[in-house]
Every structure is written in structure tokens, then in C-alpha cells.
Amino acid sequence: MTVDPPPPQVWPTVRARDARKLIRFLVDAFGFEEVMVSAEGDLVHHAQLRWPPGGGIMLGSVRDDPEDRWPLQPGTFGGYVVTDDPDALCTRAIAAGAELVQELRDTDYGSREFLVRDPEGNRWSFGTYRGEPYRS
């Protein structure tokens, strides 16, 4: 019997100076899938990207408004994403323009991973480590 995992209930969020460009980069470089974009011209109010194995992120344009209730600054996000093939993903990301911060390496906790920065300066770590199993 196969049990479908529940839909994501935690969504990391990112703000970007050029949200449309960042969306395109995250799709081309990392393999995220664009689910929806609510925008007016260059201003992205809300976008949702899916990570095909599960989960996703939400993002939008940074607002230069002192009344902004979500004042995250571009380039301050950091995320870890599980992948079964970090070697191929690293090659793809670098070819698409990701800045390599840390080469592929095998960690002492059993992961193979690398670290890159997107055009907005956010840091992304991709690796095989899936976290520790839940304890009952």
C-alpha cells in the first residue's frame, strides 16, 4: 500500500529585487516548477514554486515601503533541499549561473552536498541527507 505524503504545511519564503528573474533562475538552475505567479508587470505579489520530490517555496518582490509587513531583504534566505542526484544538480546549477560557494563533498553525517548562491544572493544547499526519522 502506498501512502501519499501530505501537502507541504511549512513554506520557506523569499523576497527578490527581480522576482521574475529569480523564478526563472530557480526553475532553470535547480529544477523547481512554477505553480503560480500573481503579478502586475514586474511586481510579483506572490509566487509558488514546487520542488518535484516534495515541498516548495513562496516568493515575491521586495517592497521599498516602511509599512511592509513582511520586510525580508533579498539575499537573506538560506535553504537546504534534498536531492537524490547532487552531482547532476550541481552541474546543472553552475551551468545556469549559480555561484558555487562550496564544492560537492561527502559529510560525516552521510550526506553528499554542495552550496550555491542564486543571483539575489540567497544560499541554497542541496544534498542527499533527508533528516533523522521521526521517533514515535
Automatic annotation (TrEMBL):
Signal peptide (UniProt feature, chain positions): none
InterPro entries attached to this UniProt entry: Glyas_Bleomycin-R_OHBP_Dase (IPR029068), Glyas_Fos-R_dOase_dom (IPR004360), VOC_core (IPR037523)
* Pfam families for this protein: Glyoxalase
Query: Which ranges carry the VOC domain?
Result: 8-129
PANTHER family, alphabetized = BNAUNNG04460D PROTEIN-RELATED (PTHR34109), VOC DOMAIN-CONTAINING PROTEIN (PTHR34109:SF1)
Name listed for the protein in its UniProt record: Glyoxalase superfamily protein PhnB
- Name the species this protein comes from: Plantactinospora soyae
